[in-house]
Amino acid sequence: MRSNSLFKGSLTTIILTLLEQNEMMYGYEITQKVKEIANDLKITEGALYPALHKLEGDSLLTASFKKVGNRTRKYYKLTENGKTESVNRLNDLKDFVEQMQLILNTKLTTQ
């Protein structure tokens, strides 16, 4: 991956989708899951936590604290509105990718 700039606008969709798939996750776990799935994509804490807080403020996520060993972790979970928003954003992203493929394929065939 040459640049993460294309993914910056998709961070919210990535978070919502991962939470939909995994039910409940904490911040570091989200960054590691993204790294595991898309090795070249790095989500920094500086980008992740403001996005999580915004989603929580928008009532798309709820947060709860759990003690794990000597640590207290903040786990995030989708609300019902978050589940709906996750589906909507994923559909929007799929539509966008399809449109981009049409544009790029047209450009490639005309050259």
TrEMBL record:
Matching InterPro entries, A to Z? Metal_resp_DNA-bind_regulator, Tscrpt_reg_PadR_N, WH-like_DNA-bd_sf, WH_DNA-bd_sf
Task: Identify the Pfam families for this entry.
Answer: PadR (PF03551)
- Ranges for domain Transcription regulator PadR N-terminal: 15-85
Q: Could you identify this protein by its name? A: Helix-turn-helix transcriptional regulator
Please tell me the species this chain comes from: Pedobacter segetis
